[in-house]
UniProtKB/TrEMBL annotation:
The chain holds residues 18 to 262 of 640 of the full protein. It comes from the Bacteria. Transmembrane segments: none annotated. This is Glucosamine-6-phosphate deaminase. The gene is nagB. Residues 7-231 form the Glucosamine/galactosamine-6-phosphate isomerase domain. It comes from Fodinibius salicampi.
Length: 245
């Protein structure tokens, strides 16, 4: 666990680590494979990566990305889609080739989702696995959309969102009744397979669940506790999110 005075200082540190890896890989002509998250938490990390691209020439031409999750159903152009979110907060501002970006598809026919999820896993493997996975945390303790009850060996799949998660998303959707009931998410096992995992949380609202995640027993009721078993996972907090540790 690392605690910073502000989310922006912490975000710069995280972006710096990501950028260092990309530069190192670029030098040796290798790809960097990033697992990316949405939500308000990682936005300043993306902002800093864009700044490094603009001001220091950090190139994303050799970067491959896999996003954690997407609501289901969801059209990519919808206000709330994670495709739109990622384009606006990162991809539209950097030089990553479109074919190297992967975000779960919220427009699939339901009968095709299982095959699609298997292929998503296969693509991560074929890319060489995730080098760094960025995570936020939901009030339920979810990582990605792995809600309470998710198994440690779960893989990419269609899940049902927790009531609390849908409440927290209500303002984005102009009412809880408009929040989709389901989502496609990488599994806990998919996340734990990453070489490095960085979970970020800012603000006092996250302090109770951060205490559970960091100090609580490892259990499926709080999926973020599974990260305690990863040998290269780090929790990065601002003072407020760390206040109950
Ligand atoms: C959503 C996302 C999660 C994210 C969580 C927290 O549920 N699917 O990946 O961690 O929201 O959101 P925020 O970062 O806005 O607090």
């Amino acid at each position: 666990t690392a605690i910073y005075g502000s989310a922006s200082d912490a975000s710069k540190e995280v972006a710096g680590e990501v950028a260092d890896l990309i530069r190192k890989r670029n030098k040796s002509g290798k790809k960097t494979v990033l697992g990316l998250a949405t939500g308000s938490t990682p936005t300043q990390v993306y902002g800093e990566l864009i700044r490094l691209h603009n001001e220091e020439g950090l190139s994303f031409e050799n970067v491959i990305t896999f996003n954690l999750d997407e609501y289901y159903p969801m059209e990519p152009h919808s206000l709330q889609s994670y495709v739109r979110f990622m384009n606006e907060h990162l991809f539209d501002h950097i030089d990553i080739p479109e074919e190297q970006v992967h975000i779960p598809d919220g427009t699939l026919e339901e009968e095709n989702i299982n095959d699609y999820c298997r292929e998503y896993e296969e693509k991560i493997r074929a890319a060489g696995g995730l080098d760094i996975q960025l995570l936020g945390i939901g009030r339920t303790g979810h990582i990605g959309f792995n809600e309470p009850g998710s198994r440690p060996d779960s893989r990419t799949r269609l899940i049902t969102l927790d009531r609390i998660t849908r409440k927290d998303a209500a303002s984005d959707f102009f009412g809880e009744e408009n929040v989709p009931r389901r989502a496609i998410t990488m599994g806990v096992g998919t996340i734990l397979d990453a070489d490095r995992v960085i979970l970020m949380a800012w603000g006092e609202g996250k302090a109770p669940i951060i205490r559970e995640a960091v100090e609580g027993n490892i259990r499926e009721q709080v999926p973020a506790t599974y990260l305690q078993e990863h040998d290269n996972a780090e929790v990065i907090l601002d003072d407020a999110a760390a206040e109950k540790l």
